[in-house]
Amino acid sequence: MDKRQVIESVNSLYTELDELSNNLWEHPEISGTEQKSAKLFREVLQKEGFKIIDEEAFPTAFYAEYGQGKPVIAVLGEYDALPNLSQKCQGTKEPVIEGAPGHACGHNLLGTAALGGAIALKRYLQETGNKGTIRFYGCPEEEILVGKVKMIKLGMFKGCDLAISWHPMSTNMVFEGGYLANTSVHYTFHGKTAHAAFAPELGRSALDAMELMNVGANYLREHVVDKTRIHYSSYSGKFSPNIVPDYAVDWYYVRAPFMSYVQDTVRRLNLVAQGAATMTETTVDIKIDGGCCELVPNVNFADLAYANMSSIKQEELSPEERSMAEKLVQALAPGVSQREQEKYGFSTSITTEVLPRNACQQTSLNSSSDSGDVSQIMPMCVFTTACWPLGCAPHTWQAAAAAGSGIGRKGMHYAAKIIAGIGFDLLKNTELDKKIIEEFKQKRNTNYVPQC
Ligand SMILES: [Zn+2]
């Protein structure tokens, strides 16, 4: 089998991959509940002759292995959905079930393309008897940014040399850096209840403390490094206005380009929380839930991903798929998609073209992913393929609609082929692997520890 044959072998998997992706899309499971989704992947992999390695402490996570010897290549798959984003596969907003979860980050496509790429590579190893190992990683709980961090802590990535990852998006492009490091923190304020009219002087309001903390955080926002993101949600229980609340919770995410910046901002945010507690004579419990790291850039690996992406063709969209893409774009605020098109020099809202290698300098992945942690322990490449129109963002009903449609599935087929191409090169060209691993060794943060 030559490289072209390995890549084209993905064509014969389309029916099976489409079925799996649709099945996941129709039965979305949010982070921490992905039992059925993980089972669907395990079944296909087992049938294909992979050895399944489960982890008792984390039943929705697993990896499946085929082959012998080095290099050991990890292909990262995810399958969790998002709460409250149920959406029919159509161009207008309408949930399948009101309030139900939906695949608005396209992880039904993400996991399935990873599976397709891994199967193509496995069949190549099987047919040629060549040395090398392919591992498909079933990674749950990405949407709450802890799944892979937990897997690292449990040692599930031991023995891997290189990792291939991708994500559905609106463009075909390769990323060399990106992903904001993130930490999640809960601040729980405790005060004293009192009758809010009869004896307000006896009350110490946890809600006041929480509000003051948020005011302080919003002032802190000005004095942090560029690209820092501070966001929160809060609740103070079910108190009525005539009770001084003795309990309130603030839940914060702090993100920044590097984990060291995040940690320093969290330190300052803790001072804000303590200040708010002092002002209100309440107390605060601070619980750091965990966090995930930024991507360790790897130019050699990104070059390889780009070479594969630009030598493989994405299927063209049908007129029906184009018209659905148009409808999705029309539902956005005026000009959103046009501005994206202008930025990349496109004249349509969805395109199968590949953005130039340096396009990632204009756009960075201003989100976070627990895949960043995988890039801290081994070289990892990241690319995106066009699975929804320009201007549409992940975590929206538009993305959920596209992820269940032919638009998403064509992006998924393309991703599976790119993974097969990259994996083939890694299996064949050990000199290239050495170069990628050497770059990783130079750039990695040797102080990395999984935060969960
Ligand atoms: Zn995602």
Question: Could you write a compact summary of the structure shown?
Answer:
The protein is of the alpha/beta class and 452 residues long.
Notes on the protein architecture:
By secondary structure, this protein is of the alpha/beta class. It has two domains: 3-178 and 294-443, Aminopeptidase (3-Layer(aba) Sandwich); 181-292, Alpha-Beta Plaits (2-Layer Sandwich), CATH 3.30.70.360. 40% of the residues lie in helices and 18% in strands. It is built from 14 helices and eleven strands. It has helices spanning 3-8, 14-26, 35-47, 107-128, 147-153, 206-220, 259-280, 299-311, 319-330, 336-344, 371-377, 397-403, 406-428, 430-443; strands at 51-54, 62-68, 72-78, 132-139, 162-169, 173-175, 181-190, 229-235, 247-256, 283-292, 380-386. The protein has a seven-stranded mixed sheet, sandwiched between helices. Strands 8-9-7-10 form a four-stranded antiparallel sheet. β1 (51-54) and β2 form a beta hairpin. α4 (107-128) runs parallel beside α13 (406-428) and α8 crosses α13. The longest helix has 23 residues, at 406-428. The radius of gyration is 23 Å and the shape is globular. The two termini are 43 Å apart. The model has no long low-confidence stretch (mean pLDDT 96). Residues 105, 107, 142, 167, 394 line the site of zinc ion.
Helix content: 40-55%
CATH arch. level architecture of the largest domain: 3-Layer(aba) Sandwich
Q: Approximately what portion of the residues adopt beta-strand conformation? A: 15-25%
Number of domains: 2
Bound molecules: zinc ion
Overall geometry: globular
- CATH C-level label of the largest domain: Alpha Beta
Structural class of the helices, strands and pairings? alpha/beta
Number of helices: 14
Strand order of the largest sheet: 1-2-4-3-5-11-6
Give me the Rg, rounded: 23 Å
Largest sheet at a glance? Answer: 7 strands, mixed
- Unreliable spans: none
Distance between the termini: 43 Å
Instruction: Indicate the mean pLDDT.
Output: 96
